[in-house]
Amino acid sequence: MGFRDILVFVDESAQNGQRLELAIELAQRTDAHLIGLAVTSAVLLPEFSSDFFPQDLISRQRQAARERGERLRQGFEERTAREAISNEWRAVEPLTSAAVVEAVALQARYADIVVVGQTDPDNSEMGLAGDFPGQLALMAGRPVLAVPYAWRAHPIGKRVLVAWNASREATRALHDALPLLRAAQEVRVLALTPKKGGVPAPNDLSGNDIVTHLTRHGVSAQIEHGTLDNTRVGAAILSSATDFGADMMVMGAYGRSRMREIILGGASRSILREMTLPVLMAH
Length: 283
Hints:
This protein folds into 2 domains: 143 residues, Rossmann fold (3-Layer(aba) Sandwich), CATH 3.40.50; 120 residues, Rossmann fold (3-Layer(aba) Sandwich), CATH 3.40.50. Helix content is 39%, strand content 22%. It is globular. The protein starts with a strand and ends with a strand.
């Protein structure tokens, strides 16, 4: 079964147009309903500080937010009107910057997949966290397709790399991606084995079983084995994606807790920071 509804996060960033083009192309390909979502809050304040701002300032910000929301709505409707797709517009007004991800996650639960942008550290609207797509994957219970900010729009899903470690999160992401994997021309399952003491660790989960499982779902996939030495996992995955010529990647998000990844580093945070191609992730 394919996607029936796709949610796309709309904002005024320079990358918004490319993200919208990708969402429209996916909706056309899967005959899905496209939902545009914007955050139109007046002022995104820390919860403890809202009482310290003058009311006239807040009133002016509310007016600016209404105007901004109208621009976003018009832009979305003008672009989608040129395509033969079913679509609708939604807007949410979280009161604080911390509530943005919660508001978007709630709307994502009413869709099959949500398309968002990688956070640009030099131009982050609303103070979004660098791992905003990962947070959304954790909270929404839906797959998140994160689009790099340094990326030129083109159709995706012809050559797909699946990062596989037999975890719950990788399993969830792979199955959420099945509508795209079935239509792909080439799918490569990357099974990376860590070294322990300079010797490759025993690999009881070679990836062959998941390839067989994918075959039963109509996906023709090949397995690639790799061994991690001193290379970070995220860098190794992205390197394999480049070597394969992948136009999309599928991976589980936060196989260990997000806090542990913040402290110790991890593949999810590394890829969210350094991604060079769209990444479908799920938790």
